[in-house]
Structure prediction request, 219 residues.
Amino acid sequence: MNELLETPTCTSKLNTNKPDFDWRSVSRLMLLSRALDDIEEHELVPEKLVFNQFSARGHDFAQILLGSLLTHPHDAATGYYRSRPFVMSLGIDLDEVVASPLAKSGGYSDGRDIGVVCNYPNVNRKGAMLFPMCGGVGAQYSPISGWAQSILYHRDQLEEESYVGAIAVSMGGDSSMSTSGFWAALNISTTNNLPHLFYIEDNGYGISVPQETQTPESR
Prediction:
């Protein structure tokens, strides 16, 4: 099954208008992600073999496309607990994807996390480097702002051409925009004009928080 996790190729950069996706590979990753969600929801959770299940259904397609575009050697990203399709698009091994929710050795942290959060240095550079993820909502934004600032430093101050075109990406849900981590990163990145893409998935839900109580003009 590992051949299903071959990173979708894209010969264009993130800021181009016509990226050339490997649609067959994109489709395989999306179907694989949904199959994993189904197995967890209908088999592993009822059997109490998985205790934390965060479905990415409906988020998967766009996440995979985004991950496929991050091909620069200095691209980096932070995800959150619903970012498994994105992580898969970066080329993470299927054994790690399956082992982690089951708290098995060979997973992201050998069973010492909630199963979805992980880090992926990606030393072979098949895709972007994934910063260590945290289960805390909103904790993912500030660290990647630091990476975006380092891109700017290498590119402009050290005049290293290899950093031209690199980007930092942070992923999160709409409720995470209410956290101090999000606002701190937004302030840092916009004030310094950093190459930082905030990728926010608004599905109308938040953890224990109705959207109308934390988003202006949503009532």
